[in-house]
């Protein structure tokens, strides 16, 4: 699979699926997080991201059935 490189030698990351969900508690605030597997990256390189941000930028991850709501850690 080829990676499309921009003129400034960058490329756009594309999430494949959500591997896990977690809620972090900081004082009186709860922050929902999702663990994201990115295209062209191994599962060991999956990152924890804000669920709210991911829903805004990539709503298809939450509506296509790619996220099962299970924590796979």
TrEMBL record:
Domain (Chromo) spans 17-61
**Quick one: signal sequence residues?**
none
Source organism's superkingdom?
Eukaryota
What's one Pfam family the UniProt record gives for this protein?
Chromo
Q: Which InterPro entries match?
A: Chromo-like_dom_sf, Chromo_domain
Recorded hits in PANTHER family, A to Z, give: CHROMO DOMAIN-CONTAINING PROTEIN, GAG-POL POLYPROTEIN
Q: What is this protein called?
A: Chromo domain-containing protein
What organism does this protein naturally occur in? Hevea brasiliensis
């Amino acid at each position: 699979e080829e990676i499309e490189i921009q003129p400034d030698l960058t490329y756009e990351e594309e999430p494949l699926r959500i591997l896990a969900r977690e809620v972090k508690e900081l004082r009186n605030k709860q922050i929902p997080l999702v663990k994201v597997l990115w295209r062209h990256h191994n599962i060991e390189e999956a990152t924890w991201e804000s669920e709210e941000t991911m829903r805004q930028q990539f709503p298809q991850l939450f509506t296509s059935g790619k996220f099962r709501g299970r924590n796979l850690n």
